Amino acid sequence: MGNIQVKNLSFRYSDMTKNLFNRFSLNIDESWKLGLIGRNGRGKTTFLKLLLGKYVYSGEIQSSVRFKYFPQPIANPTAKTSDILKAITGLADNDLWKVQLEMNKLGLTDALLTRPFSTLSPGERTKLLLAGLFVDDGTFQLIDEPTNHLDMIGRQTVANYLQTKRGFIVVSHDRHFMDQVIDHVLSIDRAKIQLFDGNYETWQHEYNRQNLAEHNEKRHLQTEIKRLQATADQVKQWAGQSENKKSKASYRGQKTVDLDKGFIGHKAAKVMKRSKNTLKRTEADIDKRKSLLKNVDEVVPLTLNYQPPYQKHILRLAEFQVWRNQRILNWPLTIDLQKGQRLVLQAPNGFGKTTILKALLGQKQLIAHGSYELSRTVKISYLMQNFETLTGDLPDYAANFDIDLSSLLNMLRKLGFERSAFSKNLADLSMGQKRKVSLARSLCEPANFYLWDEPLNYLDVITRRQIQALILAVQPTMLVIDHDQDFVKAIATEAPINLAKETH
Ligand SMILES: Nc1ncnc2c1ncn2[C@@H]1O[C@H](COP(=O)(O)OP(=O)(O)OP(=O)(O)O)[C@@H](O)[C@H]1O
Ligand SMILES: [Mg+2]
Hints:
By secondary structure, the protein is α/β, with parallel strands linked by helices. It folds into 3 domains: about 5-200, 3-Layer(aba) Sandwich (Rossmann fold), CATH 3.40.50; about 210-295; about 315-500, P-loop containing nucleotide triphosphate hydrolases (Rossmann fold). It has helices at about 45-50, 80-90, 95-105, 120-135, 150-165, 175-180, 200-250, 260-295, 355-360, 395-400, 405-415, 430-445, 460-475, 485-490, and strands spanning about 5-10, 20-30, 35, 60, 65-70, 140-145, 170, 185-190, 195, 315-325, 325-330, 335-340, 340-345, 365-375, 380-385, 450-455, 480, 495-500. The strands form 4 sheets. A 6-stranded mixed β-sheet has the order 5-6-7-3-8-9, with helices on both faces. Strands 15-16-17-13-18 form a 5-stranded parallel β-sheet, sandwiched between helices. Helix 5 packs parallel to helix 6, helix 7 runs antiparallel to helix 8 (about 260-295) and helix 11 (about 405-415) crosses helix 12 (about 430-445). The chain is globular and about 95 Å long. It starts with a strand and ends in a 6-residue tail after the last strand. It binds adenosine-5'-triphosphate and magnesium ion. Magnesium ion binds next to helix 1. Pfam families: ABC_tran. This is Ribosomal protection-like ABC-F family protein.
């Protein structure tokens, strides 16, 4: 197997004033299992698309392999799954067995092939598209966030599957997943792009070590500059005093050799010049270090516009069941969610959790049985799972939701959203950036109760930590659906309710 060579790659989108990639070079062995990591909006998806040849760039990308990208675009989602697979793999009918082989390894049955693609659950779709990716040799797979629509079991199945493959780049914000499948890490940061030999844990270790070294260096430089600054101040003061003395002495008509204005002035100027130069050099050095330090993301605490409700009972359900496709979706659900409690609903992906939330939010025609009581005066902040339809720009978005634009921008900054992305059309944002827009809105708007549907999807690790810390600090009332087990465990105040099982 050969190498993928990236030489002096520079690229920016037309609406950008600075390059997203600037003369960056890299060698990737075609047998690597490379994990691509970095905060939202750093350019992970863009890099994959550059490898695919989707955009015009300067520099060179050389390789002998064909690249394939996940998720493949689906032109007609209502078509039969086998037809979709043929379209994305280019396989003829009698070669479909190749996909079936991969599907079986991912635990999918052949029966899926005859169903319309749009009726498959998100997890099934993910696995199916992955099977389509690995049908032929001689290709190098670019797998962009396969974990987003997978529940815990689905993630493990895909991790096991990728362990048996070689030659791919995978992007994911799920570190447990990454640790199982990668042997190299490419990290895209604010100030640098770095390659590491090892898995996520090795990378984290090395990254922390570098951060520590940079912090120590900064402290050292700061002490240095303080010392230099003090010297410079002293010199300035001394020169000033000498000037004073000289003029006073001349005024009295005394003969002063030592305090000759020209001599002192000249000497002082020389010393000053020298120290100024040293200062300048040190400051330049510090600037350089600072640009490296920008890499070390400061995690700013978030705020929540939570207004504790007056009511004790926020949401009461008794024997509650909803319809989905003319069938009853869930086991009877009995809930008494009280002020300050956080309840997590769980079910496999594609089960219909979102349908249940919609029923709670007032789509009464979805309710099949049971009673339902959501205090009318409770202000709900709803974070929907589906945000891909964002259009317009941030001022439009703030106006639509009737929230203050500057609060929204401020919140986005705290979430690590680059200022330069503020003026973008929302449709052009990265997946995580889009998620952050909806999330920032929910954090800003006044609410007594939060209904969050997969809030952490697409978010980078740092942002996940921020959200968790916020919830633990504010202790708001919430109903949450999410597959991140660590998060769910940390924030829930009640035992999770599994919708797919009988609840009583
Ligand atoms: N089509 C586009 N037009 C203009 N700007 C874009 C476009 N796509 C992405 N960007 C911008 O380029 C930057 C990198 O985006 P990219 O999607 O590559 O990030 P990412 O690292 O994949 O982020 P995420 O983790 O959120 O998926 C972001 O600032 C984004 O706003
Ligand atoms: Mg991306």
